[in-house]
Amino acid sequence: MARPAPFQITPQAAVELSRQAALTSRPGVASLELQPGGCxxxxxxxxxxxxxxxxxxxxxxxxxWASQDTxxxxxxxxxxxxxxxxxxxxxxxxxxxVQFCTCGxxxxxxxxxxxxxxxxxxx
Length: 123
What we know:
By secondary structure, the protein is mostly beta strands. 15% of the residues lie in helices and 38% in strands. It has a six-stranded mixed β-sheet.
């Protein structure tokens, strides 16, 4: 059985995470948390400058930390950031079998044992 792809951070997301973390007392780090409910089963919460759990992804001088449960839920996904004239925000992208909310940070995974397709989807 092939090992699922790890969580990834796009260069655009790394730049914004670094910018936000630079405003805290702990630049270069951020924690990811999942809260149940909202628009889907899970909603991603990003806390810049906070270290909780274990390191899960690193790129361009930015390290993301999370609990093992969060790491498992975010497996095969990646964090992107989009910015335009109306503002910006983080966006989760991932396998086709994951349902993503249009808010960009809410998602639901299929029940365990369901077939998974590793192609990324664009919101």
